[in-house]
Amino acid sequence: MTAQVPHILVVGGGYVGMYTAYGLRKAARRGKIRVTVVDPRSVMTYQPFLPEAAAGSVEPRHVVVPLRKTLKGCRVVTGRVTSIDHAHKVAKVMPEEGPDYELAYDQIVVALGSIARTLPIPGLAEEATGFKNVEEAIALRNKVLDRLDVAASQPDPVLRKAALTFVFVGGGYAGVEAFAELEDMARYATRYYDNIQADDMRWVLVEATNRILPEVGPDLGQYTVDVLRKRNMDIKLETRLESCEKGHVILSDGEEFDADTIVWTAGVKANPQLARTDFPLDEKGRVKCRADLRIEGLDDAWSAGDNAAVPDLTSETGAYCAPNAQHAVRQANRLAANILRVVDGQQPQDYKHKYVGSVASLGLHKGVAQLYGVKVKGWPAWFLHRTYHVSRVPTFNRKARVILDWTLALFFRREVTSLGSLQMPNEEFRRATNS
C-alpha cells in the first residue's frame, strides 16, 4: 500500500465496525483512504430492536442494515478474519467459499464484538437458542407461535403443558425484553384459540443474581419484577439452570419441569478469536486500549465496543466503559474521526462520554427507563425506549421504515402468523418424494 492512500482494515461489521466505516466512507469515496470491512454477515443487526422484531412490532428486514448499500465507497468482504499478524500488518481471511488468503493493511480496527457467554450445562447446546441476531429472533417467534398450535391440537396434558412452557435464562436487557415482548405477543395470540387461555402458559425467567435489569437501578429492577409477576410470569432470582437435557429443565432451587422452548440470554464475552492475534489482551480476553481508542503500545491499531477494554474517563474508580450499544456507537464515531485526524497528521482525541442511562421495553405500551437520573415507568418509558432507539438506528431509510411499521400497527391488529415452515422449506418436498 502507498503512504498516500492508506488502507484501513475494519475487522467486524457490527456496531463498531459498521459505524466506523460509515464515518470513513466519505474520505474513501474521495480517494483519501481505502477501507475494507470483513464480516461473516453482509448486514449489521440493530440488536435493541430484536425483541420487537420477535414480537412482530417491527419487520425483521428493518432491524438489519445492509453493509454494501450503506458503506458506499468501502469494500465489503463476506468472510471471517481467522488471525491477525499485526507485526507484519497482515490478516488471514476465510471467505464463505474458496481458500483462505492474506489481506495487507496500513491501519486496523478490531471490532470483532462479543459472543454469547455459555456454561457447560447438560443439554444447553442441543435444546436452547440464543438471542443475538435476527435469525434467532424470528426463529423464536415462530417457535412460540408453533407451540401454541401444537398445544391447541394436543390432547395429552403432559405434552400440552411442555409446549406452553417458555424458559428464558438471563435477566439482562436482552433476556428481559425478549421475555416480556414475546409473552405479550403470545398472550394476544391466545384470543384466536378456543382451548388456550393466557393463564395456561407458563413463562419462567431464571436469573442467577438477586435482581434483574441492573442497568436501570434496584428500584426499577424491582418494579419490573413486580410488573411481570402481575402478568403471571414466574421470576426466579438467585436461581441457576442446572440441566435441560431433552427439554427437561432442572433448576438450582430443586424444581423440575419440561419445556419445549428454552432461550439463553445470560450475558456475552469478548470474541475468543482475539486470542489469534498479537494484540495485548486483559484477563477477560478484551483488547487493551488507551482512551483515544488506540490499542495499547500501538499507533496504527484501534479497537472499541464489546471486545475492547476502554478506560472510562468519567469514572473516578478506574473502570472501563460498559459493553453496550450506547458506548459502542459513540466510540465508533470518535474512532473514525481519530483515524482521519491521524491520516491528516494530527493527534487523536480521547473518548469521553458520561453514561446517559438506560431504557427497556416490557411489551406493548410498557417499559422502564432511567435517563440522567430520572426514573420513568409504564407508557412514558416505553415511548422513550422507542424514541431513543429509532434515533440511534443507522440511516434515514431504516428510521423511516421502523416508524412506518409502528404507524401501521396503530391501525391494524398485531400479526400473529407462524412461519415456522420457512426454517424447513424442503420438508414437504421430502415427504412427497418418500411417499
UniProtKB/TrEMBL annotation:
EC number(s) from the headed UniProt entry: 1.6.99.3
EC primary class: oxidoreductase
Key words, A-Z: FAD, Flavoprotein, Membrane, NAD, Oxidoreductase, Transmembrane, Transmembrane helix
Pfam families: Pyr_redox_2
Sequence intervals crossing the membrane: 6-24
Ribonucleoprotein keyword on record: no
Statement: the UniProt record of this protein carries the keyword Transport: no
FAD/NAD(P)-binding domain residues: 7-319
InterPro entries: FAD/NAD-bd_sf, FAD/NAD-binding_dom, NDH-2
Taxonomic superkingdom: Bacteria
MF annotations from Gene Ontology: NADH dehydrogenase activity
Family stated for the protein in its record: Belongs to the NADH dehydrogenase family.
PANTHER family reported for this sequence: NADH DEHYDROGENASE (PTHR43706), NADH DEHYDROGENASE-LIKE PROTEIN RV1812C (PTHR43706:SF45)
Protein name: NADH dehydrogenase
Organism whose genome encodes this protein: Kribbella italica
Lineage: Bacteria, Bacillati, Actinomycetota, Actinomycetes, Propionibacteriales
